[in-house]
Each structure stands twice: as C-alpha cells, then as structure tokens.
Amino acid sequence: MAEVTLQSFGASRTVTGSRHFVRVDGRSLLLDCGLFQGPRRESFERNRNLPMRPDVVVLSHAHIDHSGAIPALVRGGFRGPIHATSPTRELCEAMLRDVARLSASDAEYLNKRRRRGEALVRPLFDEEDVVRAMGQFVEHRYDEEFEVFRGVEARFQDAGHIIGSAGVRLAIEDGPSIYFTGDIGRQMYPILKDPVPLPDADVVLSECTYGTRDHPPSELAGDALRVELERMLKTKGRVFIPAFSVGRTQNIVYAMAQLWRDGVLPPFPVYVDSPLADKATDVYRDHPECYDAETTRFLAEGGRAFHAPNVRYVENREESKSLNGQKGPFVVIAGSGMAEGGRIVHHFLHGLADRDVTVIMVGWCAPGTLGRRLIDGENPVRVLGRWTDVRARVVRINAYSAHAGRSELLSFLAPAKDRGSQVHLVHGEEETALAFADALREEGFASVNVPETYAVYALRTREAAAARA
Question: What are phi and psi of 41, to 5 degrees?
Fold first, then answer.
C-alpha cells in the first residue's frame, strides 16, 4: 500500500495562499502554489520562505492566491513540470508578470522605510523568473489523463469558477484516490459552464470559502446593474466600478452587452481601464469551448460579449487620466477590486467628491481597504495620501461572487457522503471552515477534517480508513 500524506502550507483555516503538499512514497506534488495575501511584511516573509520542495506542481487555476508564488518557487530552484489547463497557463503569463512588477514596487516601498542596518528587501521574484516558470508549464485539456509521476495519474475537471479553472482528480496506484476542488464555481453563472459534478474519490480536499452563507441569485446582479445604468443615463452621470481583472470584469461587460443586444438600454461609452483585464479578456475570447449554452447562443446570434463598438480597453496612463476631465454618461471598470491600488484609485481621487458619480462595489472587500471604507460609509476617506470628501453615491451589488455559496457547496459535496469519502476543508477562514465542518457532520458525513497549517495527515483508501476506525 502506498504511503500518502497531505500537508497544507497555506489556505488552511484561511482563504489565501493555496499550497497543498501531497507525498506519495518519497515523491511529492504541490496542488497550487499561491501567494499569501495579508499585512505587507507578513506576506513578504510567508511568500519568500517556501519550505516545500515538490517534484511537480499541479495548478487548479490562475487566481493569484492559487498561482502567484510559482515564480518564487522557480527562483528557489524548482525545475519540475507545472501542469495546468491552457487558459490557466495563458492567464498566468499575464498575471504573474503583473505580480512581478508589484513585487518590485513593494520591495522599493519597504526599502525606503527600513531601519539603519537592516538588509535590503529583494522582490519575491522578477520577470525573468516568470519567463523561466512559463517554460515549465505543461498544458492539458479537461478530462485528459496525464501522468504526474510514476504511479500517479491526474485529470482536470471543469470547476466553472473562472476560465480554465479546474478540480484535480489524482489516481494513486495502491493508494487512495484524491479530488482537489480548487475553487468551486456557481450554478447558472454567466459565461462559463457549470461545475462538473464531484467524481468518486476516497479523499476530497474541498474549498469552503462561503461555507456559512449563500449569495443572492446571479440574475439579481443584472437587475441591480441595469437600475444604476438607467440612472446614469438619466442624470448624464459617471459610474466607477472597481473590479478584479479576471472574471468579474468580463462578467460585467457581458451583462451590459446583453442589455444593449436586447434593446433594454442604448449603447453608452464603457472604458475598461486595466491592461491586465485587457489581456484576460483576450483569453476569454480565445476559449469559446469553455462557454455555457447561453453565451454560445448569444455569440451565434451576432452578439459581441466583450468587444462591442462602444467598449474601449484603455491602453496607457495618459488616456486613463483624460477620463477624469470627460463628461458623462460613461462607465469606467478598473482594478483593483478592493480599490487598494490600480487605476481605479486615481479615478476615485478625482471623482469621489462629485455628486454625479456613482461607485458600484461588486465584490467583497477586506476590512481596512478603501473599498470597505466606502461600503461602510466613511467620509472623508484617504485616497493616495489625501483626505477626500465622499459626495458620490456608493452602491453595493452582492450577487457577482464566482464562488459556490453554502447551499451549492452542500449540493456539490453530497455524493461524498454516500460514498463514504474523507473530506478535508481548506480555503475558508477558520470560523467558517469549522462551522461548515459541523454542518457536514450534521448532514451525515462520516469523516470531516479542517487541516491545521503545516500538520501532516495520512490519506488512506476508504477500505483502509474503515479498517482503522
């Protein structure tokens, strides 16, 4: 019987820094290699010191909390293959370059504030490390079997979270089968196909980000957006939408394209003010095989999901700055989603004091971020070091999350109860993970665990686990 263990180096009792280390008889693979995102100095330490030494990386999707530490791993000497779907590799090429630039900026910030005698802070990685990392990627289609190393076969399964996102099923010779969910998408969510049902596995390593609450139905997001856009057209105002470059931006542009196609609203200028969102949209455009039936039909009938004539992708800072002197009505979609950086912050500096501006927050914002302060009604707020009065309307639309909510998680995991699978819950804050574990036990799941960071857990087949019980 193969000796198999699991050790989580991140996203255990938290939602950031997904890194799950699986050892199989002396060989090892790393499921995801994400950046830990938190206080600046703590993040630098946890992302710089990567104690795992895998032979292989298997990547569920491109979001930075799942992929962002790959170049740091490569800088540290990792030379093995990085298995991913084609869209994930394409997204990573753009996103990891962006992180390299931000890492250089963070290092410069810390060095300006270092104490006398302290060593200079080096960036976590640079663009040369990204180039080396991209050369180690190996692309796969959904449902294609591939060898991780001798005795371990893998298969990617569509997770419906962002384009290219996947769950990973591992088949281990003389050992347990393992299914890692990555991030589970929502049912009936725009653009992408629904998540493929949970396959049979002895062990399920599942995310539980929203294990204690459900989201409003996604169709309500479109209704709320339409109301705000109608108001913008009536008042000739401006709308600023902070949005993540991958997934959220494409969903919002597509929602507006549907309103124009159906004649609900007349076309109006939309500026996607994010170079990363521009590159990510190209990946969405180039992979129609990932679209759901509705989006496929929309395109077949002549709809333009991402590149309608009135949608402009802003390329340079000069053009971005010129929007601050332009009269409405128009929409600006820009990163970052929590308004902690990126071009949206500059639009806020010039627009929050104007009554003709509406800010639409379309995602969760961490405490302390500018986005959260606006949601909480703080006035004035500090933007780029300046106190700014908030006369703009701030509206929150909560239905855009691409993560499965509590009910969807319970439904997705239900087959594991009937099969007697062992469930390990990751990618959820500790309180949420523990509460969701209790909910699974109440539902009749026989074996549920919430891993501790760095703790080592033996993984067994159902038969072997039952024999030890």
Answer: -70, -40
pLDDT attached to residue 469: 67
Which residues lie below 8 Å from residue 197, measured CB to CB, with a gap of 6+? Answer: 412, 415
CA-based torsion, 336, 207, 196, 188: positive or negative: negative
Task: Identify residue 27 by its one-letter amino acid code.
Answer: R
What's the pLDDT score for residue 468? 76
- Do 22 and 50 lie in a common domain? yes
Burial class of residue 133 in the structure, from the number of CB atoms within 10 Å of its CB (0-12 exposed, 13-18 middle, 19+ buried): buried
pLDDT of residue 250: 96
End position of a domain, from candidates 379, 396, 413: 396
Q: Which residues of 218-248 are buried (b: 16+ CB within 10 A; e: fewer)?
A: beebbebbbebbeebeeeebbbbbbbbbbbb
For residue 367, the model assigns a pLDDT of 76
* Residue whose tokens read 């949608």: 311
How many whole angstroms separate alpha carbon 171 and alpha carbon 367?
41
- Do both 330 and 367 map to the same domain? yes
Domain of 24?
4-213+402-468
- Can you give the length of the chain in residues? 469
Distance, CA of 104 to CA of 357 (rounded, Å): 33
Q: How far apart are CA 312 and CA 293, in angstroms?
A: 26
Structure tokens at 279: 């590159």
- How far the first Cα of the chain sits from its last, in Å, is 18
Q: Is residue 205 located within the same domain as residue 225?
A: no
Cβ atoms of 438 and 462 closer than 8 Å:
no
The pTM (predicted TM-score) of the whole model is 0.93
Residue 36 in contact with residue 47, Cβ under 8 Å? yes
Distances in whole angstroms, Cα of residue 15 to Cα of each of 45, 69, 159, 366, 438: 18, 15, 17, 12, 18
Question: Are 253 and 294 in the same domain?
Answer: yes
Would you tell me how many other CB atoms lie within 10 Å of the CB of residue 461? 19
Q: How far apart are CA 146 and CA 140, in angstroms?
A: 8
Q: Give me the pLDDT at residue 39, please.
A: 65
Closest CA to 2 of 468, 463, 466, 459: 459
3-state secondary structure of 149: strand
Q: What is the pLDDT of residue 334?
A: 96
Largest CA distance in the chain: 72
β-bridge pairing 4-10 and 19-24: antiparallel
Q: CATH number of the domain at 177, please.
A: 3.60.15.10
CA–CA separation, 459 vs 451, rounded Å? 12
pLDDT digits (tens, 9 = 90+) for 449-459: 999 999 999 99
Q: Would you call 369 helix, strand, or coil by DSSP?
A: coil
Low-confidence ranges of the chain (pLDDT < 70): 38-41, 469
- The whole-angstrom separation of Cα 366 and Cα 375 is 11
